[in-house]
Amino acid sequence: MAGNGGDWQRDLVRELTDGPRAEGGAPHAPGTGPGPEPEPEPEPEPQAQPSAPVPRQSRDPRTPTPVPESLPTIDPRLAIALGRPRHGDSAVRRAGAGVRRLTASPGREVAEQTRDARELQQPVTTGRVVAVTSIRGGVGKSTVSALLGRTFNHYRQDPVLTLEADAALGTLPVRMGAESVRWSAADLATVLTPAMQLTDVTGYLVPVADGGWLLPAGQGRVGAPLDVATYRTVTLALRRYFAVTVVDCETLPGEVARTAMDTAHARVVVAPMTAEGVHGTRQVLDWLAGLPHSALASTVVALSAATPDATLDAKAAAAHLREPGVTVVPLPYDRHLAQGGPIHTAKLARDTRDAAVRLAAEVMGRAVRVR
Ligand SMILES: Nc1ncnc2c1ncn2[C@@H]1O[C@H](COP(=O)(O)OP(=O)(O)O)[C@@H](O)[C@H]1O
Ligand SMILES: [Mg+2]
Questions:
Q1: Distance from CA of residue 102 to its chain's centroid?
Q2: Ligand 1 pocket check for 333: Cβ under 6 Å
Q3: Would you say the CB of residue 298 lies under 6 angstroms from ligand 1?
Q4: What's the pLDDT score for residue 10?
């Protein structure tokens, strides 16, 4: 399992699971003794935003960082208007899938699943950062980031963080099921110190219902965009605590997106299933090919069909994107994803779940091998 990879990971998990969490998710007192055995992460309070920890870690103790207020990620009236989550597959398709599974070759399927699980559970020596971006907004970056964060968390024992680096009123907190947010990446940049324990850090993060942690870019208001210095400070500091950090970036060629793509261990470019989307994504791949650190070799394209009406030939689109030598993983249209709102893994279409696992495995393989 992934936890065998290094003592630091075991220590982190132990630290995280050791003892009850302080009320409201505030950080543990550092230095409490280790628990008997590493256990799976505790079930966090569903969608509970930790109450504000006392910012005692502020660099200058005389000027503590003001505690930001907790704000809902979505207006409660709209949350009601969202309706019930739909299943990604229609009832007819779900019934058909059962029959197809009975007639399919189970051996091949099991072999593929085992291979993906092995990739996903690879031990890491230092925290790996995976940057997700695209050439324009609304193509599925936050959706793909949320799927990756949840998939990594499902397969790994060590802590996984999903970080929003898109200040343009991003949707990652909603997609991850967070009901409210308080501390943002910019806030955290001012309070992080090397002396902090994982349990101190997680007090500033949003626990995700299925496990794992979320750090939003802001509080869902139009505000100052995240700058490169903040991005670097936060990702560098948090890499110490999290085995995998998935970064939901702004669109290219934004400065933070370029920095994130340049400095990540693996990259995902989300391409929409349109002729202009695929064409534009090819330009991005050509730019990546010009970067040092074999950026293209550590890049995977997620070819996302965000509409059921796409007419572009999927095979031709994938072949065009593969030409520079990248791996392309198609992400099918999914009714549950199309609905917006929180992603419920159990409601995803089977093909979507398979695609998410495939994508995450391809990404993890690259993140571990490169550099
Ligand atoms: N695979 C998919 N199937 C169906 N709809 C999708 C899919 N991917 C994305 N969408 C739709 O596209 C919208 C925008 O996606 P989002 O991830 O917020 O894009 P971005 O972060 O790039 O702006 C989502 O709210 C969802 O409705
Ligand atoms: Mg987004």
A1: 33
A2: yes
A3: no
A4: 55
H helix or E strand, kind and range, residue 117: helix 106-120
- Look at residue 65 and give its three-state secondary structure: coil
Domains and CATH numbers, the chain: 2-15+113-369 (3.40.50.300)
pTM of the model: 0.85
Q: What is the model's pLDDT at position 23? A: 34
Cite the beta strand spans of the chain per DSSP E: 71-72, 128-133, 160-165, 180-181, 206-207, 213-215, 244-249, 266-272, 299-304, 327-331
> What number of other Cβ atoms are within 10 A of residue 193's Cβ?
10
**Ligand closest in space to the Cα of 217:** 2
* H-run or E-run covering 188: helix 185-191
Ligand 1 center to residue 185 CA distance, Å?
23
Q: Which residue has the tokens 């349990």?
A: 199
Closest ligand to Cα 353: 1
Dist CA 51 CA 70 (whole Å): 8
Does the CB atom of residue 138 touch ligand 1 within 6 A?
Answer: yes
Q: Which atom of ligand 1 is the closest one to the Cα of 138?
A: 23
CA gyration radius, the chain: 20
Residue 147 Cα distances to 27, 151, 154, 356, angstroms: 27, 6, 10, 6
What number does the ligand 1 atom closest to the CA of 304 have?
1
Average pLDDT of 218-223? 70
